[in-house]
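Reading a protein record of the kind used here takes little practice once its layout is understood. The reader may check this reading against the record printed directly beneath this paragraph.
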Amino acid sequence: MSRVSSIFKAGLFENRVAVVTGGATGIGRAITDELIHLGCKVVIAARKQERLDQACADIKAGLSTESVADIASLQCDIRNEEQVSGLFKFTLSKFGRLDFLVNNGGGQFPCPVSQMSLNGWNAVVQTNLTGTFLMCREAHRAWMQENGGVIVNIIADMWRGFPMMGHTGAARSGVDNLTKTLAVEWAADGIRVNAVAPGSSIHSDTAAANYGDQKVFEKAKPGVPAKRLGTPEEISAAVCFLLSPAASFISGETLKVDAAGSLYSPLMWQIPEHSKLPAYKWNKADDDSFGKSKL
């Protein structure tokens, strides 16, 4: 895992076990990579076995012989109650515990609500809302009710509505509320529950490919006060912070990672082009850019 240059200390998550849905690609892969780099044992889950196999092979190839981290995978449709239950049984059988759950798995497609079919609506709501509910509930039942843990739900930038994405906006808003509810209901079980809301300007090659447009995220740039796109590493860093002991008194919160994009209105305040908020990246080739990006 030499390509990861985490801001967090080495070994932070040694002897910890995490489940990351959608952990083979995009933002989920960044989260998986950083957790592994920090010594965590990670089970990644997704519907496409070939992506899971490739991610596991890549990560294992990069592990040093001294690393206590490990990676495993299981094909899982988070909308399927039986498969979700099986995911946690697999995790406990493989690694013997469950400390972290990162609900990153999800999906949507652009479509105005007036043209949206009921099947399309249900597919997105069931994946993003019902799937997150099932994952949280089964993690609680399988381990966290008796042993505690930390849950981070990945949602979206839906604070001003979500035109062309009404299904996922409604679902992610539901997850935001579910996060708050579980933070209270499960506090006495020693469980913290938070969410991270990536801005629509977070560039992911995988997501761009799914939308069939590698420049789809560029459209969001004018509405970002940082005047640049965000990186998957910036989401991963937020997730790792919320999983860490540094966030031990934070629960029921949603951390927006959008460079204040959800607050910005060009009609009221004009921000000129600038490059004064550089990206946080695990830059594979340019260590200087990583150093400069520690804001």
Notes: Strands lie at 17-21, 41-46, 70-75, 100-103, 149-154, 191-198, 254-257. The longest helix spans residues 118-147. The chain has one domain: 17-292. The radius of gyration is 18 Å.
